[in-house]
From TrEMBL:
<comment type="function">
    <text>Binds to the 60S ribosomal subunit and prevents its association with the 40S ribosomal subunit to form the 80S initiation complex in the cytoplasm. May also be involved in ribosome biogenesis.</text>
</comment>
<dbReference type="GO" id="GO:0005737">
    <property type="term" value="C:cytoplasm"/>
</dbReference>
<dbReference type="GO" id="GO:0005730">
    <property type="term" value="C:nucleolus"/>
</dbReference>
<dbReference type="InterPro" id="IPR002769">
    <property type="entry name" value="eIF6"/>
</dbReference>
<protein>
    <recommendedName>
        <fullName>Eukaryotic translation initiation factor 6</fullName>
    </recommendedName>
</protein>
<comment type="similarity">
    <text>Belongs to the eIF-6 family.</text>
</comment>
<keyword id="KW-0963">Cytoplasm</keyword>
<dbReference type="Pfam" id="PF01912">
    <property type="entry name" value="eIF-6"/>
</dbReference>
<keyword id="KW-0396">Initiation factor</keyword>
<dbReference type="GO" id="GO:0042273">
    <property type="term" value="P:ribosomal large subunit biogenesis"/>
</dbReference>
<comment type="subunit">
    <text>Monomer. Associates with the 60S ribosomal subunit.</text>
</comment>
<dbReference type="GO" id="GO:0042256">
    <property type="term" value="P:cytosolic ribosome assembly"/>
</dbReference>
<dbReference type="GO" id="GO:0003743">
    <property type="term" value="F:translation initiation factor activity"/>
</dbReference>
<keyword id="KW-0732">Signal</keyword>
<keyword id="KW-0690">Ribosome biogenesis</keyword>
<dbReference type="GO" id="GO:0043023">
    <property type="term" value="F:ribosomal large subunit binding"/>
</dbReference>
<feature type="signal peptide">
    <location>
        <begin position="1"/>
        <end position="19"/>
    </location>
</feature>
Length: 344
């Protein structure tokens, strides 16, 4: 008697404290009358006044098919299984999302921050074949990369994803550099390629070419939306084009005595990952120069110092080569504030 009274009082207090309105619906493709309202327009359904800590979404997509939803759940829970997490099994990609504002679970459920494993162009050196920024992505796709290209298009549905070669080559990650504001291409880029890229990019993204003896721009320049580090021997004119096109402050710098800064460092606006050869004193100096926290990459037996060949990032997503280990994912997570996937 007494304890049930306490329970009632407690529940009432909690009710006042945690009243939270959430969308509540669920749908699976196996339902006899599969209706996508819960997936695309939950606001057309009745919301529920929940006595819970979190509004939640669990979205289940086919790993192999762009944006094809197998099931969608919107609800409210005190203790969600995962607060915010993305992971894959053999067939599906699962997105868990939790939030604490009224009606905050009306979105797609795809967390904007996820680190995902993939192979591109049949290679783990995905950074060699692609470039991702906050306003566009370039892919050096081949005929048989349609599948992976469409996965990326699904992940990055808000920005243009452009399949292109540069000078007829697929190793575009090595050859160009860019950020939210601009894109720099080698002078020898074909006119047809340049035209294709200009057509696909929004007008706000400036496209320029650079004529420099150091023509592998992706290897000699690394940038985010605010700063760039460049190979110390880059031409003065190149430096000016970089500053102007990418709207960044430019620093000539080496990383651990290596001038290939674009291979040895990966940057977002949140942070950066640097090759393992760097010592603490240099790391601190570089971090204060760039004004972002930097993390030193893994250094195990298979470790590859050229971090940029196995990793591409924006502020919203990271892709890492299939061979990336879980300790490497931890470094990526720490460096960029991303949520690493959990594999079964
Ligand atoms: C989960 O991630 C979303 C999007 O980044 C964020 O708005 C939300 O606050 C996060 N949830 C929690 C409980 O931290
Ligand atoms: C990408 O473009 C190349 C030609 O530049 C083409 O051969 C390939 O089929 C395209 N791939 C996709 C996935 O569109
Ligand atoms: C750290 O590395 C820099 C550049 O490679 C070098 O000049 C410096 O002497 C090193 N400092 C220490 C304490 O090892
Ligand atoms: C880092 O900066 C400090 C202070 O300017 C300097 O003494 C030190 O030599 C620098 N370290 C490296 C590796 O450049
Ligand atoms: C590191 O990756 C680059 C780019 O693919 C490759 O050329 C190089 O051989 C790799 N190094 C090691 C030690 O695996």
């Amino acid at each position: 008697m007494k304890s049930s009274l306490i329970l009632v009082v407690f529940a009432t207090l909690c009710g006042i404290g945690f009243s939270l309105e959430c969308y509540t619906c669920s749908v699976a493709e196996t339902d006899p009358d599969f209706d996508k309202t819960c997936i695309d327009h939950p606001e057309e359904l009745l919301a529920t006044d929940c006595n819970k800590n979190y509004c939640t979404i669990i979205r289940q997509e086919y790993k192999d098919e762009e944006n094809i939803v197998a099931s969608m759940y919107r609800g409210c829970e005190d203790y969600p299984m995962y607060i915010n997490k993305t992971f894959e099994d053999e067939t599906y990609r699962f997105y868990y999302f939790s939030c604490q504002e009224p009606l905050c679970n009306g979105g797609s459920g795809k967390s904007p921050k996820t680190a995902l494993r993939m192979r591109f162009a049949n290679s783990d050196d995905i950074g060699v074949f692609m470039k991702v920024t906050n306003s566009y992505a370039l892919l050096g796709g081949e005929e048989h990369s349609e599948h992976v290209c469409s996965l990326i298009r699904g992940d990055l549905s808000e920005i243009p994803v452009i399949n292109t070669s540069l000078e007829g080559c697929r190793v575009i990650g090595r050859m160009c550099v860019g950020n939210k504001n601009g894109l720099l291409l080698p002078e020898a880029t074909y006119d047809t390629e340049l035209q294709h890229i200009r057509n696909e990019l929004p007008d706000s993204v400036k496209v320029e070419t650079i004529q420099d003896r150091l023509s592998a721009l992706g290897n000699v320049i690394v940038c985010n939306d605010h700063v760039a580090i460049v190979h110390p021997d880059l031409d003065k004119e190149s430096e000016e084009i970089i500053a102007d096109t990418l709207q960044v402050e430019v620093f000539r710098h080496m990383i651990a005595n290596n001038p290939l800064v674009g291979s040895y460092c990966v940057l977002s606006n949140q942070g950066g990952l640097v090759c393992a050869d760097i010592n603490n004193s240099e790391l601190e100096n570089l971090s204060s120069l760039l004004q972002v926290p930097l993390v030193v990459s893994w250094h195990h037996k298979q470790g590859n110092k050229t971090v940029a060949s196995g990793l591409v990032v924006s502020d919203h997503i990271a892709y890492a080569g299939m061979k990336t280990t879980s300790s490497e994912f931890t470094a990526i997570d720490t460096a960029f504030g991303l949520i690493p996937p959990r594999h079964y």
